[in-house]
Amino acid sequence: IKRGLSTSSAMSAVIKNVTVIGGGLMGSGIAQVAAQTGHNVTLVEVNADLIKKAESGIAKSLSRVAKKLYKDDPQAAEKFIAESQSRIKGSTDIADAVKDSDLVVEAIVENLEVKHKLFKNLDAVAPPKTMFASNTSSLSIGEIASVTNRKDRFGGLHFFNPVPVMKLLEVVRIPETSDETYEAFMAWGKAVGKTCVTCKDTPGFIVNRLLVPYVAEAIRMMERGDASPRDIDTAMKLGAGYPMGPIELSDYVGHDTSYSILVGWQKKFPDNPLFVPNESVKKLIDEKKLGLKTGEGFYKYS
Ligand code: CAA
Ligand code: NAD
Asked: Which residues are marked as site: Important for catalytic activity (predicted)?
């Protein structure tokens, strides 16, 4: 058994240096959990202000995690926070950010063209050993990977919001993903404290394929006036045991992200009624009410 174990761990490349591209809701969380678990992290954003914003969000979240981990030991909590923070370096320079990277996790805007532009650039500047992953919610990993020359070192690593709390990681293989890359992704997912499930490169993978139509249907119920948003949320929390109601959850995920998911799926699968985007969400986006991250969505947040 021992020999088997060491063989399988020798097979998977060990991921130590991680580059996270995009320091928004998801990228900040991914950078945080990687740093918390001893990885060196470079967090890339488009400007210095956004790096600062990400760092301050990470600091807040780290202190919530530390409070839980080291309830009766404030000194150990401080040490955990300081050490985790010291492992995260901010950068606005892609080439510099990937020069020693074992793994790049992309968490930028949910738009295929923008992701293509980034990955083309990354493929040109990253060392051959560097593996690439996208945290996309809904796009095809194969289509994202198509602009690179390293499809064997490409896959999906789909985290959930809030990353420091949600225990799941979906590991997505495309046909070209090598066994070594897949093993390395699974081992890294475990190393950052997540339970990994594997899924083929299908729209929404497992969770979003079920969750996104459910949330859209709840919004349609609200749009028809069948029940108030508060009552829909209360009903699903108390009647179905969900931690958050669907309307609350849509604000939490961000309307720009969830709307672009449905627009993309509707374009690809025009006959599927589950994928029709919500008018009221479009209206919120036009009013720049993207949900919790902008302070207002269907609900107001102070
Ligand atoms: N960082 C660190 N810790 C956090 C945190 C964060 N950002 N947010 C919450 N926590 C911690 C809190 O400190 C708290 O810890 P204790 O239990 O020790 O007190 C714990 O999580 C619970 O938080 P709260 O008491 O503030 O609130 P809650 O009980 O309502 O839980 C929640 C908050 C974990 C977000 C919960 O409401 C929940 O699970 N909601 C559903 C989230 C969900 O469905 N996410 C998936 C979205 S879909 C997605 O991500 C995929 C996609 O591609 C779109
Ligand atoms: P977000 O808007 O909070 O963050 C995206 C960040 O990427 C922004 O801060 C932006 O400045 C930055 N960015 C954009 N282009 C960049 C570039 N070229 N280089 C560096 N940074 C760049 O979005 P998010 O909610 O964190 O979503 C990011 C990705 O994760 C999307 O693909 C989304 O579908 C996916 N996702 C989102 C959720 C969710 O619940 N919001 C959950 C899982 C996966």
From this structure: 158
